[in-house]
Amino acid sequence: MSAPARTALVSTAGHCEVACSFCFRADRARGFLTIATYTRALSRLKETGVEGVCLTGGEPTHHPELRQLVRLALQFGMTVSMVTSARSEAEVSALAEVAHLLTNVTVSADSQGAMALGRTTRTAASAVTTLDAVDTPSKVLHLTYWDVEGEEATQLAGLVAGKGINVQLSPVLVSEDALRRDGRSIQDALRQRARDTASLGQHLRLSNGYRSYLDDLRRMQLTKEEIHPCRSVTLYVSAKGEVRHCPYGTSEISVHASRTEIRAFLDAPATDRVVPDCAAICRPASRDCAA
Amino acid sequence: MPKPRREKQNHLIYADVVDSKSKAGVWMGERASFRDKQARILEALKDRTDWVNLEGAVMVISAEPAGLTVIAPNPTLPGVIVLSDGGSPAASARLQADAEDKVRAVMAELGSPKRKRRPDPMATPQLLWGKYFQYDRDGEAVLLDPITLESVLLDSGEVSDLAGVSPTATHLALAGLGFTQDGPADDRREALHHRLHTLGIDPTPRRISGLRVVLTDRCNMACTYCFVDTNTGKPDMTEQELAAGLEFLFEQNAGQEEVSIQWFGGEPTIRFDLMQYGDELADTLAARYGVERVRRTVVTNGARLTDEALDHFVQREYGVGISIDGPPGINSANRLLLGGQPADDRIRRNVRRLVEAKGLHVGCNLTPTASNIGRLAESVQWIIDDLGLKFIYVNTPIPTGGKWRVNGAELARELYEARLTALGKGGMLFSVLDRAFQALDTRRPMLFDHMQGDRSLNAALLPGDRVSVCDINFTEPSFLHTLDELRADPALLTSATKKVAPIPACGDCPALAICGGPSRNEQALIGGNTPDPQMCAFYTSTLAVAVWDNTGVQ
């Protein structure tokens, strides 16, 4: 039996304009989350004990009814937080308009190497500019990293210093196929990650939880054993209204199913297994933005 | 301590808009049952709304229009309270209407037998000590003495105590309440006859105190299930026949407090002239024979109502009973104008005029048919909300074509739910259920369909100088007599006398003293003594509903 989830990630759109090429999201599809599906999801999740939602991508600031999404969750008595890549003026002002209602804002950024790999433009500096423009009790810069040199790590630490911004890290997980095309192996990637982590560790205090997550990840990548059943404490709701134990899960139930069926789905032991892609969601001490 | 059913002798007997006086009686409590129902309504609403829990209630959150609706069980009555706030009066009204629609839909569904029903174990009690019936539910039990109609509620501890080696505390307490293990009655049918004798209840009618006057068999509607042969071309009643019939009624009731006259047809208002004539004459006769009061009622389909007739009804303080089976879709299944078109719009307009007129008592006669069974609660809701009729009398099914056409057990359950729906809306619903409640509360057998407690009979005055001693059967030869024959031989009334518990199986039935077996009419219609199994299921099920419902407080 899984522990009852207290939080849920809610995908506000099936599509995402950032389109990182290393994105592993399982359910990319066009279309925004509708209000009817969203309120049904909130009601059903609240009934099962979920106390907070985190609005996530696609890009939540692109949702035409963002304010409504935040307001409704609060009416259901839930806390609301958000993961965003907001950078443009329109995105940042949409975010700023609701920021005072949010418990936490996490702005995603990529290291230089990750930007090159994923063909993105989400710099850490622009993330901090966005965070500076919003008024929330808690702010997080989420950095997806690859190939981080000492200098970049120093700059990163400088960017957040004294601003009350916490940093959350995720290594890029390059697929084996992509590595092979590049003429590299898993071991090469793991060595790169170890170097990157060491650079970051010189300027940021890495938690024990994060270090043990990296150990788990390494073990999973090396052994390819799907050892652990999914233990995500954060549910996931897709933009089409399917509830999963985690964004990467394969078993799901529609929020429009009967309450009995939803409860049965959530009460039943998860059939999904932890894989490297989803391990970050499960990492015990991660400061997931909704936690 | 085992709890005996509270005794209650002062049932309100009123609002018998169109039918015999023995059929009314309302109990407003029933709290345990309606709470259960309210909980089921709320639970079902949770399936179709987006809500958060409040203490003992839910708050529905809507986005279009944006707003909140609190839905809570009414703490003192059946039904739920719906309260919406959408920021503006228009949005609030929309939310309120939407929520009420949802609640209604849920209530209608919960009242529907289309959902799979399990056989109801409550309806099949076990025999205890060879003479009491034990109804079990969720560990609790009710013991019923089928002869004395005493009943006792046992909690779960007492139920298990009862299974222990006698005498336990529960055995002793029950003995104190008259429930003893010794000496089971040899023959419960005989015991009932003895009980009737002790209570002075005699099945033989003494006189006719009410006449259902069948003015004409012409009707502007052609309802498929009508028990009257209509539009046969037979002549209407004449003034002379009417005068003779009324003369007989008043002379038989000289010095009595009350007689009742019910105008009936066909559609009686087609001969409004005879109604006027008869009402005038009745006043004269009442004065002459010293009858204090004339109760006047009319049974009409409501499709036709002239201003003149309306004024007349108001002036004579009529009780008006409108035959209607439910909302248009249901009503028009069996109730159509002669030309085949539905009459719902007309009926609705006329009902409004009747309801708005001062001094009239307006009610509705609802016949359970294949098209409204499963939707009785919904029909009742529509009758109260849409038509504005608060008094609903549900006709007791009778065999058609030699057998019962409805499922008796389901009908009993539906009547109960329809009754709660009516009560929740400030209306009242009268049916055979009341007979079971009343029998249990008063400890008096309730066995007679067409006879009042004072042993006076409702009979039907028919065209052609004939009287049927059964007011819902105008053709059975053994019921038909002329006025002169009845004057010469009052014993002819005994052709309507019910043979109480006519077959041995009645002795094994828990509803022995509430049903008492098939009436003479029932026997005539099924062509034998043995009751239709659905009739038995109906009465045993009404009893099962009533034994658990001992909270009547009105």
Please tell me about this protein's structure:
Chain B: Belongs to the radical SAM superfamily. Anaerobic sulfatase-maturating enzyme family. Chain B: It is an enzyme of class 1 (oxidoreductase). Chain B: This is Anaerobic sulfatase-maturating enzyme. Chain B: Its EC number is 1.1.99.-. Chain B: GO terms for molecular function: iron-sulfur cluster binding; metal ion binding; oxidoreductase activity. Chain A is globular, with a radius of gyration of 18 Å. Chain A has helices at 35-47, 66-75, 89-99, 112-118, 124-133, 150-160, 176-181, 186-203, 208-223, 259-267, 276-282, and strands at residues 7-11, 52-56, 79-84, 104-110, 138-145, 165-171, 234-237, 242-244, 253-254. The two termini of chain A are 21 Å apart. Chain A has a single domain, classed as Alpha-Beta Horseshoe (pyruvate-formate lyase- activating enzyme). Chain A has 291 residues and is α/β, with parallel strands linked by helices. Chain A is built from eleven helices and nine strands. In chain A, 41% of the residues lie in helices and 16% in strands. By secondary structure, chain B is an alpha/beta fold. Among the domains of chain B are: 31-110, TATA-Binding Protein (2-Layer Sandwich), CATH 3.30.310; 127-144 and 159-177, no CATH class; 207-396 and 449-489, TIM Barrel. In chain B, 36% of the residues lie in helices and 18% in strands. Chain B is built from 17 helices and 19 strands. Chain B has helices at 31-48, 89-110, 156-163, 169-176, 188-199, 239-252, 272-289, 307-315, 328-334, 344-356, 376-387, 408-424, 432-442, 483-488, 512-515, 520-526, 533-548, and strands at 3-4, 51-54, 57-63, 66-73, 80-85, 126-128, 132-137, 140-144, 151-154, 207-214, 258-264, 293-300, 319-323, 361-366, 391-394, 428-430, 456-462, 466-468, 480-481. In chain B, the strands form three sheets. Chain B has a ten-stranded mixed β-sheet. A five-stranded antiparallel β-sheet of chain B has the order 1-9-8-7-6. In chain B, a hairpin with a 2-residue loop joins strand 3 and strand 4. In chain B, helix 6 (239-252) packs parallel to helix 7. The longest helix of chain B is centred in the first third of the chain and has 22 residues, at 89-110. The two termini of chain B are 25 Å apart. The model of chain B is unreliable at 12-31 and 112-119 (pLDDT under 50). Chain A binds chain B through residues 35-36, 39-40, 42-43, 46-47, 68, 72, 75-77, 258-259, and chain B through 46-47, 49-53, 61-64, 66, 68.
